[in-house]
Amino acid sequence: MKVMWRRVRNGDLAEVLPQASGVPPTSGQAVELASTHDVRRNVLRHLRQEIESSPDDQTFGAQIAENPAVRFTGIPGFPNTDVSWAYLWTLFVMDVTENDEAIEIAYVPNEKQNEANFFQQLFLDNRQMDVWIDLRGYWGNESFITDAFVRPYQFTVGVFENGLNAALRFVHNTRNRVGTLIGRVLVRGGQPRQNLIADDFTMNPRLKRSESVYAARAEEVPRLESSTRRISAADVCAVWVHGTLSCGLEGLKDLPTLPKIPMYRFEHDTFHEIGENASELARLINQLGYRRTYMLAHSRGGLVARFSQQALRSQYRRASKVVTFGTPHKGTPVADAANGGLALFMRAGDFVVNGVPFASEVRRMAGMFVGMDLPPGIRAMQPSSEILRTSALLLNKPFESWAGVYQDAGGSLGYGQDIDSIISGVFGQAIEHDLVVPTDSALGGNTATRISCAHFDYFKNPAVQNYIASLK
To answer: What is the pTM of this model?
Structure first.
């Protein structure tokens, strides 16, 4: 049986899209669906590569894969605190041409008695319900990959052939790109409590995986929290501070040459308050006892490093120098983006194995964060946050900053990540950015350098690599 996903043209229902229902929407199912329809052949190759990139992950395959229902038990006596997230068993694919600035897609039951009703399970659930479309796009011959969460502008329940069913419509901005979209339906039942998840529960599995994949670099650059003594008699060291939902090795792996001085990495939970991270960083640096410390910080890590520099000077009388790369010193509109902002952070920041997006715990659980309040450590990056106002008033010590300017060269990032709904809507056409942070926001240092790169590619840039290798 097939559900009725249709493309909408000029307000009218048009062609039926390739679709499947009654089966989990896994990567394997996406391959099968795409292979039986006239969609671009490169999509099949890249879907298969995604599956092969996760040979130890038979349940989920790759990023379009099925996420089983996740449920948090509520508080007795409090309605809608029992929260669950689940993907409905339906999947569709559609081709997009260069003539399409935006596409509209509708699910409309065809009123046949044997029509699969994948909304039926929702009608007996008396909790508050949110419905989203989880979209994955493959663009151009090199499959520049985009992720987006789209909320339907219409969701109605009606009677079809004496039975309840539902219809929905949504629009997605494709910006005249050529490619293929794969979509599925995400449903959240119940109303989550504010800051439902206080800790990044994906941190330890992500770090363990990264240290396994990049074992040699992990040995060269040990964790700061595990280092109770110096690894050298030098009087200066470097500490690497990672960004949101990442780990230190995700930037360090891109460096062909490390500096001659000892280097450590500060692995920390980016859901926590920036001040909490900074205090811990300062304490660990002081514990090692080096006379001077370089703090090399990516993205959110730059805010942690600057507050830590303040603590090192005032509490421990330690000298330090901060160098930031793509740090939102004035905030980023990505952190302001509701309706999936955190989920997109999680997907975009997830690491890449052998050039193919790896289906890690972060990506599998990203849908749980759609529509939720941001944790304090990420909310701090909103342009209006108190943390940024405090940093502007109190953090006056000079530091260096590097800011990227992303240039869309038709998919030049290959398998890179494009935070699709952010680029097309939040930044607009006039604001320079690196896909995540406005360039002006990243240019906060007394010594500031602009380079051409995307947010997750700073440490692939030769100028950055040479700068870090020269530290002494």
So the answer is: 0.73
